[in-house]
Amino acid sequence: MRVKRVLVIVAHADDMEFMAGGTIAKMADLGFTIREVIATNNERGTLEPDWSTSFTAEARREEARRGAKVLGVDPEIEFLGYEDGRLSETPLNELRERCMRAIRRHKPDVLFTWDAHAPYEDHQDHRAVAWAATEAAMFAHFPLYHQEHRDEGLEPHYVGERYFFAKSPRDANKTVDISDYIERKIEALCEHVCQMEMTVADLQVQLTASGLEIPFLREADRKDYRPVIEAQIKAWAASVGRKAGFAYGEEFRRVRFNGIERWARGSESVLPDEL
Ligand SMILES: [Zn+2]
Predict the structure, then answer these.
(1) Most exposed residue of 23, 37, 62, 190, measured as fewest CB within 10 angstroms of its CB?
(2) CATH 3.40.50.10320 is held by the domain 5-259
């Protein structure tokens, strides 16, 4: 069987690890080749008051490469270079073209990205990349979309499978058993030092504001973030996995071949499910 190619298009350095780290590690172990495209420079993602945005951007790029390596993703990450926190101000047509170019360059069988149709996504960068990547995948095989790509040797390309993830998933139809990959997911996340420190600090802000008492979290040192991240990720993955009978899971709204699968129902020729 031909080696499958996976492309992950996200807004930030840690999005892939948070939302699909276990699944991506599992795919890497199955022999899939995995590339990552990160739309922003992540230059606002630190709590260090003395860091410049350019220093932060380089630190976050390095963290992204380390996280990717842990999961088995090609560490040659493609950074689109947009400003952190302002992706939604980029014209959709421009961002869609960048995503379509990435799809035509990397020729993925499978795309992972944020779900444009899921509710309650407060982050403007997630919403922006979700729409751009989803629409790019929809039309990348049509030759008259961005004909200028052909001048660069990029051919139209059809993306058969799309895995959409969301913090509040809607119509999730695929839960991946990541029980054997939960530690690698946590390990990959912990490579994102800046973001994990921010996560702990953010949880502590929420805790203080709520008036609740969780001594373990209140007393946590954000520089020693691993126990908090581990507890948070395991609790989340356990609640997702429980519904499907797994110790730990990640869930997606998966679209395969735009629904052609439905035509094969009733026969034995349903699509194989590698995960
Ligand atoms: Zn993000």
Answers:
(1) 62
(2) yes
CA of 101 to the centre of ligand 1 (A): 22
Question: Could you tell me if 171 and 253 are in contact, meaning their C-beta atoms sit under 8 angstroms apart?
Answer: yes
Token pair, residue 100, equals 């379509």
Q: What is the pLDDT of residues 103-117, one digit of tens each?
A: 999 999 999 999 999
Cα of 17 from ligand 1 centre, angstroms = 10
Ligand 1 centroid to Cα of residue 164, in Å, is 14
Strand locations in 108-194, DSSP E? 110-114, 161-165, 174-177
| 15 CA from centroid of ligand 1 (Å) | 5
Task: State the distance from the centre of ligand 1 to the C-alpha of 84, rounded, in angstroms.
Answer: 9
Q: Ligand 1 centroid to 41 CA: how many Å?
A: 11
Separation of CA 144 and ligand 1 centre (Å):
32
Cβ distance 161 to 254 under 8 Å? yes
pTM above 0.85, yes or no: yes
* Three-state DSSP string of 24-60: HHHHHHCCCEEEEEEEECCCCCCCCCCCCHHHHHHHH
CB 247 within 8 A of CB 240: no
Give the Å distance between the CA of 201 and the centre of ligand 1: 16
pLDDT digits (tens, 9 = 90+) for 18-72: 999 999 999 999 999 999 999 999 999 888 889 999 999 999 999 999 999 999 9
CA-closest candidate to residue 159, choices 139, 131, 130: 139
